[in-house]
């Protein structure tokens, strides 16, 4: 699915679809989790990294199985490394939330507030990816604004649904 039209970050081709649904999954986990202020710094970091690693592993597994079915044979070690290398770029999705965690923790902000900032940054990133997709589709003016608004709207819908479903006091109810 990656092509010469796929956006680049540095030399990495980034599949927007994977970035978006990994972001949404991470946001959902962060919203539903309760008890941030009882965790250590490393505990909070693990809750951030965990879903991203799980998605990475699921893609490696799914792509490996798909390749085996398509080729009718097991992957060679070289093919297996290529699958891991291709999917490993999505581990970088954990970097922005971890940077926010480090900066705000250093500033003395509570973990619950830090997670709220990370979740809202996730919503903003969906708007950003809406902008990237709109520009790649040669949209301008109100059509580009609509593409950005759609990304933001999806993020807000996810926030709303997850906050309604979360148990206890939850991240967004503080």
Helicity level, as a percent range?
A: over 70%
Gyration radius over CA: 18 Å
Instruction: Look at the structure and give the mean pLDDT.
Output: 84
Structural class, from helix and strand content? Answer: mainly alpha
Biggest β-sheet, characterized? Answer: 2 strands, antiparallel
How far do the termini sit from each other? 41 Å
Q: Strand arrangement, largest sheet?
A: 1-2
Secondary-structure element sequence? EEHHHHHH
Please characterize this protein's 3D structure.
With 174 residues, this protein is mainly alpha-helical. It has six helices and two strands, in the order ββαααααα. Helix 1 (16-32) runs antiparallel to helix 5 (111-136), helix 1 (16-32) runs parallel beside helix 6 (141-165) and helix 2 (41-71) runs antiparallel to helix 4. The termini are far apart. The relative contact order is 0.15.
Map the helices and strands:
Blueprint: E1 8-9, E2 12-13, H1 16-32, H2 41-71, H3 77-88, H4 95-106, H5 111-136, H6 141-165
Antiparallel strand pairs: 1-2
Keywords for this entry:
6 helices, mainly alpha
Give a brief description:
The protein has 174 residues and is mostly helical.
